[in-house]
Specification:
Helix content is about 10%, strand content about 50%. The protein is mainly beta. Strands 1-28-27-26 form a four-stranded antiparallel β-sheet. Strand 2 and strand 3 (about 55-60) form a beta hairpin.
């Protein structure tokens, strides 16, 4: 009888694994919510679970916005907090628990300081510490933070973009204050000029840190010791043939089976003006790609695989790579792009092969603001944009792709104008709405009309506009398009009420 049970269990397990693999091939992103931010833009996004609550922190120029996140992916604003000197933008934000207290660590990029906030029970923030830059610490233009927990203490590693770049380690005290441990100045060997990505692997009791060097065009490996000090292990540079590290940017990693991987993206220097911000303008562009490195026995990185961008992927200008989930010896990754203005989902298998799944064109460029978060088995991505005209943060659920073949999307907007709105203002508002069809090519069709129902159930709504989109991408591009945002800003003051309905039809 036991043998029969084992056979049945094995069969169920096999079918379960096959089903999960098939699902991962057909995952897609579906927007659940978007909310306004109080700052000018959303450069960085992070999240944190405290007790039974889930919080999102959106950092931009001058301040940080705090939201709660529901299991349905809905954001609720809680508070906003000014950065030191109202500078910023807030970069490299990371939340963690240090000996029983929850903290949010923030790199104030142009304030040249690291700020520590205590995360209160309702998610709000209270600044408890601040560390300014010195000639020895390389905190100027700080961009990336990484918390590393050792056996007895925790440390904050800091990297940035200043003129004398390097990598620094600080011990985190129980009250959130930072004590300097070690700083390593950048040189021609290590890649710490423009550390925009960091990731930590713990392997067989040893701790390793991996950094990207945006200006150095490469990645570096470091061994981290119990006292927070560190030393360089190996460094891998870009080339002009099979490596894609010019403008090395986001860094993350996963462990699959017995293999430890580090995944590195890049925003190529071709997307910047030569002779300006870029220190080495004599670069060669040979495409965009996401690089997979395998960690060797000494903790160093070895080139393993590259997923190259093509007509079926959205990998131009990678600025953030998030691990959505790790299951069944495969990882689902999300790649946020600034130049493709998209989120590309990918799968990494146990052999270290990275393959594309699906992408969503978000309608806005992602600079650093992308974060994965899981609630009760549901996987979400929270995204923002550096665009100053957007001032929004959005949530997406990662779930099996819905078959929309042969269907189009209708987007219906019913309006009621304020009584004091003049006929001329209404006519201008109608024309501006219809003109969106000229400004946004993704709108397949647009029509409108004035309510002619005599049933008495129109709720006072008088004008109805129906837009047609061919897919999800088109709707997202429309929603966050500058022309649409300008329209909302223009006609908003004369709108008394609005009802929006979307549906798919043949």
């Amino acid at each position: 009888m036991n043998c029969i049970k084992k056979v049945v269990l094995a069969i169920v397990l096999v079918f379960s694994q096959v089903g999960m693999a098939q699902v991962s091939e057909e995952l897609m992103l579906y927007r659940k919510d978007f909310k306004s931010i109080s700052g000018n833009n959303t450069v960085s996004v992070t999240s944190y679970e405290k007790g039974d609550a889930h919080y999102v922190f959106a950092g931009g120029v001058g301040n940080i916005d705090v939201y709660s996140l529901s299991k349905e992916g809905i954001l609720t604003p809680i508070s906003n907090h000014e950065l030191y000197r109202k500078e910023g933008p807030a970069r490299g934000m990371v939340a963690d628990n240090i000996n029983g207290t929850d903290f949010l660590f923030v790199a104030n990029k142009h304030g040249n300081v690291i700020e520590t906030f205590e995360i209160l029970n309702n998610g709000s923030l209270k600044r408890v510490a601040l560390v300014e830059d010195t000639e020895e610490t390389y905190l100027g233009t700080a961009i990336t933070l990484e918390v590393i927990h050792m056996n007895k203490s925790s440390y904050l590693f800091i990297g940035g973009l200043e003129e004398t770049p390097g990598l620094s380690s600080f011990k985190i005290q129980n009250d959130g204050k930072l004590t300097h441990v070690q700083s390593m100045k950048d040189d021609d060997t290590i890649h710490t000029d423009g550390v925009i990505g960091m990731f930590t692997h713990k392997i067989k009791g040893e701790t390793f840190l991996y950094t990207s060097g945006f200006q150095d065009n490469g990645v570096s490996s470091f061994r981290v010791y119990e006292d927070g000090r560190f030393k360089n292990i190996n460094n891998i540079s870009d080339n002009t043939t099979d490596r894609f590290l010019t403008g090395a940017y986001p860094v993350t990693g996963v462990t699959l089976g017995n293999n430890n991987y580090v995944i590195v993206g890049h925003r190529h220097h071709k997307y910047y003006k030569r002779g300006g911000f870029i220190k080495r303008p004599d670069f060669v562009y040979h495409g965009d790609g996401v690089s997979v490195f395998k960690v060797n026995k000494k903790g160093g990185l070895e080139p393993h695989f590259v997923l190259k961008d093509d007509d079926t992927t959205k990998l131009q200008g990678q600025t953030r790579i998030e691990v959505v989930s790790v299951d069944n010896n495969e990882a689902i990754l999300a790649v946020g792009t600034r130049d493709d203005a998209s989120i590309q989902l990918c799968k990494l298998n146990e052999e270290g092969i990275l393959s594309p799944i699906n992408y969503l064109e978000t309608g806005f460029s992602i600079y650093y603001g992308l974060r994965s978060h899981t609630i009760e088995g549901s996987h979400f991505l929270i995204a923002g944009s550096f665009r100053f005209d957007l001032k929004k943060i959005a949530t997406y659920k990662v779930s099996p792709k819905i078959n929309r073949e042969g269907k189009v999307l209708r987007h219906m907007v019913s309006l009621k104008y304020k009584e004091e709105a003049t006929d001329e203002q209404v006519a201008e508002a109608v024309k501006a709405f219809v003109d969106l069809g000229k400004d946004i090519p993704e709108i397949a069709d647009i029509e409108w009309g004035i309510n002619d129902s005599a049933e008495g159930n129109s709720k006072g709504l008088t004008h109805c506009f129906t837009l047609t989109f061919n897919d999800e991408h088109a709707r997202e591009i429309y929603l966050f398009h500058k022309a649409h945002l300008d329209l909302v800003s223009q006609i908003g003051p004369i709108i008394a009420d609005v009802l929006v309905l979307d549906y798919w039809t043949d």
